[in-house]
Design brief:
Blueprint: E1 17-19, E2 25-28, E3 38-42, E4 46-51, E5 54-60, E6 67-69, E7 82-85, E8 93-97, E9 100-107, E10 110-117, E11 124-133, E12 139-147, E13 149-152, H1 155-158, E14 163-166, E15 171-174, E16 185-192, E17 197-202, E18 207-214, E19 219-229, H2 233-241, H3 245-263, H4 272-293, E20 304-305, H5 306-312, H6 321-332, E21 342-346, E22 351-354, H7 363-375, E23 384-388, E24 399-402, E25 405-411, H8 412-424, E26 434-435, E27 451-452, H9 453-472, H10 476-496, E28 506-507, E29 513-514, E30 524-525, H11 526-536, H12 543-556, E31 558-559, E32 564-565, E33 568-569, E34 595-596, H13 597-609, H14 613-623, H15 632-638, E35 648-649, H16 667-678
Antiparallel strand pairs: 1-2, 2-8, 3-4, 4-5, 6-13, 7-12, 8-9, 9-10, 10-11, 11-19, 12-18, 14-15, 15-16, 16-19, 17-18, 20-21, 21-22, 22-24, 23-25, 26-27, 27-28, 28-29, 30-33, 31-32, 34-35
Helix pairs in contact: 3-4, 4-16, 6-7, 7-9, 8-9, 9-10, 9-11, 11-12, 11-13, 13-14, 13-16
Length: 684
């Protein structure tokens, strides 16, 4: 049996679903979930998103630029990108696992199961269907599979160009007018090994109809292959690899083992809900969504964010260091000779955006130093990568273009050093703080154009780390610069940014302060306090101020009743000075005074840095989705998935405690890393 009839067999059951006893699957028994509850399956080039409401979509190479089927993120009038009739349509249940999904349905004494997975290597989605006739006479089962094809960014602009044909029992789709993917061919093929199943392909309607006659008390199996290739001859090769159910089953087991080896752990933390997340779900979310798919229900971005994916690989340093190393080297090649970097880019065509964001480039030395500290791999410092061609921004605040690499190279160490020196060149002479540009970590602070206190703390921590790296390279001059500048920043912080009981957040271009007791809105911001601790914990003369800052966080930002850690307080409504697009969010949502989970993980880190384990654990429980969803009452308030971290939780009084954006958030990696660094290392 896939499901137990006893609800107490599940962990954290909430009337919709719960975790199995092994804690590596989430079973959904009532698919009328408050919002679509999704699972993502992907390898590094191909992926699909499914939900409790139906299949969201499938993509190849780039989840934004080459959607094979239509992506819909409208949960009110949801329209699946792939529509089934006869299965996955009414009264079905779901099992979500690491790398696979099971759809379970029963109609007229026919038990139907569909196992969905994507192999580690091949760019194909396999949907294996098992039909069991529980009746004492032969029955017929008809299943239809209809695509809503895109083969591009959006259906409305691409559908008219799609060519579809049935070639020898294979449905082939191509968009010859695609700029970057005109050579790609999508295909659908049903592999079955029985004369009892008849398959009809209708290229005009993008429909595959599968009719199966099932003998009494017997079962029939077949597999729907939906893939994409760049060489049409490869279609036959993929189909051949899965031309029997035995081969499909073998690949299915290999896929499960692959993901289990990547993400499953066995840490003992003394908190069952924390263990569930740490022992599989956090790493799965980070790898399959953030690193592979770069897509989910709420966003289908496709691009690699300079700071985003670098931070994600922090969670992999111990378990998959090769991936962290690979990301560091890749990111070093996305730097301009001046020292700034692309904010994000699409790897399939080297298109990206150059901006004035002030923290992107600093994540290279941060992650590099952490990687070397954990692995001892100093050889990475001497790996050479090229710079990007310079395309000046002129009077524009951002430029989207194609950026190719030039012949000039530098080592990873030199790239990281250049990033720091570029940051140090952006110091305001009056207050000694770093310029915020068009935003620091908080993109929403797009109009401040003054200085960032958080960024200055961040730089302080990087300088402490990089001083050690410089010594490894026998670069005594750089090491001295790091030590000297760090102490100067400390002086500047206390001369300008300490405000009675906490540190302010930023200064506007006109000199006005943000994050001060004098403000009516945003009197206090979380990340200035968290990173004050992270950056200055080793200074004994500021211990009182650090503790006072954390007390202010607990007083104004930690809502223990609703288990929310607000990013700032009070929210922006009618600010005197325009902080940027953050004020476009309704007060108490996303960055504008809601919980931004990424920042909340940094608060937990700050507590652990000071040895305040009780307080750190409390914050981890607040950001753990299971604590928000283990009863019917809680989950109907929280609404989103119980098994992945939400990027944000609303503190707005009309939607208090509701989860926002899920899956596609860097907070999963940070939550994993904080637990790994401060809890699992001593409780294995």
């Amino acid at each position: 049996m896939e499901f137990s009839s006893e609800y107490n067999e599940y962990i954290a059951f909430n009337s919709y679903g719960g975790f199995n006893k092994n804690k590596d699957e989430y079973h959904i028994l009532n698919t009328k979930t408050p919002l679509p509850w999704c699972n993502i399956m992907a390898n590094e080039n191909f992926g699909t998103v499914v939900s409790s409401y139906g299949t969201v979509y499938t993509y190849y190479k780039n989840s934004q630029g080459f959607k094979l089927t239509n992506w819909c993120n409208d949960w009110i009038s949801f329209k699946p990108g792939e529509i089934f009739k006869g299965i996955y349509d009414t009264n079905y249940n779901l099992v979500y696992g690491f790398g696979y999904t099971k759809v379970l349905q029963e109609d007229n004494l026919i038990s139907k199961k569909m196992d969905i997975f994507i192999p580690e290597k091949n760019n194909v989605k396999i949907q294996k269907i098992t039909l069991e006739n529980k009746c004492a006479k032969m029955q017929e089962c008809v299943i239809e599979y209809k695509l809503e094809p895109v083969l591009g960014v959006a259906q409305e602009t691409n559908l008219q160009y799609i060519l579809c044909r049935n070639i020898d029992g294979i449905l082939e789709l191509k968009n010859p007018y695609s700029i970057d993917f005109s050579n790609c061919v999508a295909f659908v093929k049903v592999n079955c090994n029985t004369e009892n199943t008849k398959v009809e392909y209708n290229p005009d309607e993008y429909v595959i109809k599968i009719t199966t006659k099932i003998p009494e008390n017997k079962q029939e199996e077949y597999a729907i292959l939906f893939g994409c290739v760049e060489n049409i001859e490869d279609i036959d090769k993929i189909i051949e690899q899965y031309n029997t159910i035995e081969k499909v089953d073998e690949e299915y087991e290999n896929t499960k083992k692959y993901w289990a080896n990547l993400v499953k752990k066995d840490f003992k933390l003394g908190d069952e809900y924390l263990e569930i997340m740490q022992n599989g779900w956090l790493l799965y979310q980070t790898i399959v969504c953030r690193l592979f798919a770069r897509s989910a229900f709420y966003q289908s971005g496709g691009a690699i964010g300079y700071r985003d994916q670098l931070q994600d690989t922090l969670a992999l340093i111990n378990s998959w260091p090769e991936k962290t190393r690979e990301q560091i080297i890749l990111n070093s090649s996305k730097q301009f000779e001046k020292g700034d970097v692309l904010h994000w880019w699409h790897p399939h065509n080297n298109s990206g955006i150059r901006t004035y964001f002030s923290d992107d480039y600093l994540w290279l030395p941060y992650v590099l130093s952490e990687y070397i500290n954990k692995t001892g791999d100093t050889d990475i410092l001497d790996v050479k990568t090229s710079f990007l061609e310079d395309k000046p921004m002129g009077d524009r605040r951002e430029v989207y273009d194609i950026y190719n690499n030039i012949d000039k190279e530098a080592t990873v160490y030199e790239h990281a050093k250049l990033a720091i020196n570029f940051g140090l060149s952006r110091i305001n002479e009056e207050n000694g703080l770093l310029e915020i540009g068009d935003g620091d970590w908080n993109d929403g602070f797009s109009s401040i154009r003054g200085e960032s206190v958080w960024l200055t703390f961040f730089m302080m921590d990087i300088l402490k780390r990089f001083s050690k790296i410089a010594k490894i390279k026998k670069d005594s001059e750089m090491s001295k610069i790091c030590d000297k500048k760090r102490h100067i920043f400390k002086h500047s912080i206390f001369a300008n940014a300490w405000d009675e009981d906490h540190f302010v957040r930023a200064f506007f271009e006109n000199g006005a302060v943000l994050g001060s007791n004098s403000n009516k809105e945003c009197k206090i911001d979380l990340i200035s306090q968290a990173w004050a601790v992270i950056a200055m914990k080793e200074y004994p003369d500021v211990k009182n101020e650090l503790m006072e800052a954390l007390k202010s966080v607990d007083k104004y930002l930690v809502d223990k009743e609703n288990m929310i850690v607000k990013l700032l307080y009070p929210a922006f409504d009618k600010p005197k000075n325009n902080p940027g697009y953050i004020k476009a969010y309704v007060p108490g949502t996303r960055e504008n005074g809601g919980q931004y989970t990424h920042a909340a993980t940094w608060l937990a880190k700050a507590y652990f840095e000071l040895g305040m384990e009780k307080e750190g654990l409390e914050i981890l429980r607040f950001i753990n989705p299971i604590y928000h969803s283990d009863t019917k009452e809680r989950v109907e308030k929280y609404m989103v998935e119980p098994y992945v971290v939400a990027a944000d939780i609303y503190s707005n009084e009309n939607h208090m405690g509701r989860g926002g954006w899920t899956w596609y958030t860097g907070s999963s990696a940070w939550m994993y890393k904080v637990i790994e660094d401060y809890l699992t290392n001593k409780k294995k």
